[in-house]
Amino acid sequence: MVTGEFSAAHRTHAPRLSDAENLALYGLCNNPAGHGHNYRAELYLPPGAAVPHGLWAEFDHKNLSADIPDLRGRNVVTEAIAKLVAQRVPQARRVRVWETAAFFAEYDAAEARYRLGRRYRFNAAHRLHNPRLTPEENRRLYGPCHSPDPHGHTYLVEITVAGVLDPRTETAYDLRQLDQRAGDILSALDYTDLDGEVAAFRDDPSTGENIAAYLWSRFADQVGRALEAVSVWETAGRAFRVEAAHKAVRLE
Ligand SMILES: [Zn+2]
Ligand SMILES: [Zn+2]
């Protein structure tokens, strides 16, 4: 993977929508004066391939909505930026652009479609204890997470949705809708004792695998087939992921 960074202004504004629709959809990001981000790009290239010299100079310290002819008249959302970078680097199989630490858009050239990743956090207590196991088995399996008193984590959750562009909005998924759904789903866990208060973890302890599987089923209900992956970090070094094949995988 090759990475690059650029700082740039843009305005989120879909030309095919009315001003009122744009304002309702994008809020502050629709500010006519524009706003800016420190973008970070990740390019997945074949072995030995490199990005063209000066690639990032085209984007860095520019107003993407005004200065880039290829983006003029477009809704300059992160999907459009990822696709343009992919066009500049035709060898890239995938180009992922992080707009903030909590949001990326990725253009998958091989599949000609997009992925959007949105990150959320929730804070919760838990204590891992499986009543079907002996005390010794519980201790061995769960280590410090089996201590008699609950402890807590700030869980990081990444929801990945995939799709093609809606021709009216030029976006691959309605992020406002995703945020609302995530708010509903995660507020049921935020500031709770997972094993003591959340029915889903009464019999199946709140391991990272079980939390990821629970979130997968809740988001799949809401998002449907657009849902591609759910990742949960219990701590920075302990990640769990469920993908469309619906199998929990411990990452690290
Ligand atoms: Zn923005
Ligand atoms: Zn724990």
Structural summary, described in words:
The chain has 252 residues and is an alpha+beta fold. The protein folds into two domains: 1-111, 2-Layer Sandwich (Tetrahydropterin Synthase, Chain A); 117-252, 6-pyruvoyl tetrahydropterin synthase/QueD (Tetrahydropterin Synthase, Chain A), CATH 3.30.479.10. It is built from seven helices and eleven strands. The protein has helices spanning 19-26, 64-67, 78-88, 135-142, 175-187, 194-197, 208-223, and strands at residues 2-10, 35-44, 62-63, 94-100, 103-108, 113-126, 151-163, 192-193, 227-235, 238-243, 248-250. Strand 5 and strand 6 (113-126) form a beta hairpin. Helix 5 crosses helix 7 (208-223). The protein is elongated and about 65 Å long. Residues 10, 12, 29, 35, 37, 99 line the site of one zinc ion (ZN).
Topology of helices and strands:
Elements: E1 2-10, H1 19-26, E2 35-44, E3 62-63, H2 64-67, H3 78-88, E4 94-100, E5 103-108, E6 113-126, H4 135-142, E7 151-163, H5 175-187, E8 192-193, H6 194-197, H7 208-223, E9 227-235, E10 238-243, E11 248-250
Parallel strand pairs: 1-3, 6-8
Antiparallel strand pairs: 1-2, 2-4, 4-5, 5-6, 6-7, 7-9, 9-10, 10-11
One zinc ion is lined by residues 10, 12, 29, 35, 37, 99.
